[in-house]
Amino acid sequence: MLTKVKEYRSIGISFHPKWWRNTVIGFIIGFSFWLMKYILVYLFGGFEMTVGKSFPEMIMSLLMVMLTFLVGSFLNDIIIRGYVFGHLKERIPVKWVFIISLILYALDDSWNEGFSITNTLFSLILGLSLTYAVYKTGSLWADTGIHWGLNVCYGIFNGTLGSSDGGIIISTYEPQSMFLEMISYIVPLFMFVFVYLIRNKFVRDNG
């Protein structure tokens, strides 16, 4: 049993006294910045909001989005950052662990979304916040909170990955200009700066 606990802790799954605080702060950050991104895109004509779903449909869709993206975000964080930091941080300089984790995250996104320079750049910028959260706290909770929060916001507008009925807010997207594309890079970059600035608000697991 003790061996299992050590194995989980080594990959960032450690239920220290304030693990929930890191998760909540992370969720608020991820959701808020992604909501900001959608608001900016909407204000500059990137999409239109059409008729929404009925209230029962909205509740069911929200629950599905919350649960689906919680599981998906957590599993991705374990594989891409938990195992990488857990198995490499004592063997190579941490900056290389950081870089390897970023590259793996971008490759994983390319596998799911298809490879493109723009998508790879977006993944690398977004990965900065997620990877830094693990590096700073020594656990996955802040990382998973951020990841889950932004994915929930994504799901509200787009639904879960692979769904055909759209999000809770049904959106019709317009052709994206270069300016609107830049918003997708600028917002996650500002999110990383924000995460760095409030880094001491997170509780670090020193176990």
TrEMBL record:
Source organism superkingdom: Bacteria
Protein keywords: Hydrolase, Membrane, Protease, Transmembrane, Transmembrane helix
Pfam families hit by this protein: Rce1-like (PF02517)
Keyword Transmembrane helix listed: yes
Signal peptide start-end: none
CAAX prenyl protease 2/Lysostaphin resistance protein A-like domain: residues covered: 61-152
The keyword Transmembrane helix appears for this protein: yes
TM region positions: 24-47, 59-80, 92-108, 114-135, 147-170, 182-198
Biological processes, Gene Ontology terms: CAAX-box protein maturation; proteolysis
InterPro entries: Rce1/LyrA-like_dom
Record-level Gene Ontology MF annotations: endopeptidase activity
Name this protein carries in UniProt: CAAX amino protease
Provenance organism: Neobacillus bataviensis LMG 21833
